Structure formats: C-alpha cells, structure tokens
Amino acid sequence: MKSKERFSKKEILRLLENKNLTEFQIKVLKAVAEIPKGETISYKGLARKIGNPNAYRAVGHALSKNPFPIIIPCHRVIKSSGEIGNYSFGGKVKKQKLLTKEGYKSKNKK
DNA sequence: ACCGTATCAACTA
DNA sequence: TAGTTGATACGGT
C-alpha cells in the first residue's frame, strides 16, 4: 500500500509563505487544505469561509495559481451548481474521477 | 436554457 | 495606473 504523504497544516503554511504568495492565497489554500475527505465545498462557500463571500472569482484565481496541487485537495472545490468546474491538475476529468472515488457524485454530465 | 452583469484578486503593458 | 482575464454566481428574459 502506498502511504499518502500527509502534510501538516504547519508545513503547508510554511510552503505557502516560502512561495511568496499573498495573504489571500494563503487563506484560500489553507481553507481548501482543511477540507475532509469526501467533503466538497463551492467556490462561494470557500470565499465566504475566508471572509470574502463575493470573491468567488478570486478564490478560483488562487487555486489556479495553486503552487501545490498535490498537497491542496483543490479537486474538492466545486461550483455551486454542483458541477465540477475546472482543474489545473489533469483537467476536470481527473477532478471528477477523484471526487467520484472519494464518494461524491458529480453532476458534470458530458 | 442562454446571456449579461456583478465582484475580487492577480497579471501585463 | 489602467485594462484584461479567470477554476464563478445570480438574475432576467
């Protein structure tokens, strides 16, 4: 069995700061990194969580610039419509696959 | 269902 | 500094 390298929140924060990212990015990435397995959140919900409920666009930007798509489960972030949206790590197809694997039924119908 | 507008942050000239 | 883009959201038609 391959053990999943679990990065601690502290390590993530360290990496984020090391990447010279902005406070907003760190907030978003940290929030996403705390999403439990099998749980999903919408861009707006995430934006609301960080304190900018109307910054759903900025949240998307933050994830698009995601420096660690491996550590950050950005595939758990979906649209409020229940669709997948986009994914910078393999494409939405991979994202949907990951979500389905975790137990989430995506509505993204091809 | 489709189109236009609203809203935030980051990038480029 | 100003303009454009982008992993969206919501309302009107």
Provide a descriptive summary of the structure in words.
The protein has 110 residues and is mostly helical. The protein has one domain: Arc Repressor Mutant, subunit A. It has helices at 9-18, 23-33, 43-50, 56-64, 92-102, and strands at residues 41-42, 77-78. It has a two-stranded parallel ribbon. The longest helix is centred in the first third of the chain and has 11 residues, at 23-33. The chain is globular, with a radius of gyration of 13 Å. The chain binds a DNA duplex (13 and 13 nucleotides) through α3, α4 and β2.
Q: How is the topology of this model organized?
A:
Layout: H1 9-18, H2 23-33, E1 41-42, H3 43-50, H4 56-64, E2 77-78, H5 92-102
Parallel strand pairs: 1-2
The chain binds a DNA duplex (13 and 13 nucleotides) through residues 22, 24-25, 42-44, 47, 52, 54-66, 74, 77-81, 84-88, 92, 95.
Please name the defining characteristics of this protein.
110 residues; mainly alpha; two-stranded parallel sheet; 45% helix; globular; DNA-binding
Total E-strand runs: 2
Trace the largest sheet across and list its strands.
Answer: 1-2
Helices, by number, come to 5
User: Mind describing the biggest β-sheet?
Assistant: 2 strands, parallel
CATH level-1 class? Mainly Alpha
Shape: globular
Provide the succession of SSEs. HHEHHEH
- Overall pLDDT, averaged? 89
Low-confidence stretches: none
CATH superfamily: Winged helix-like DNA-binding domain superfamily/Winged helix DNA-binding domain
Number of domains: 1
Radius of gyration: 13 Å
Q: Termini distance?
A: 33 Å
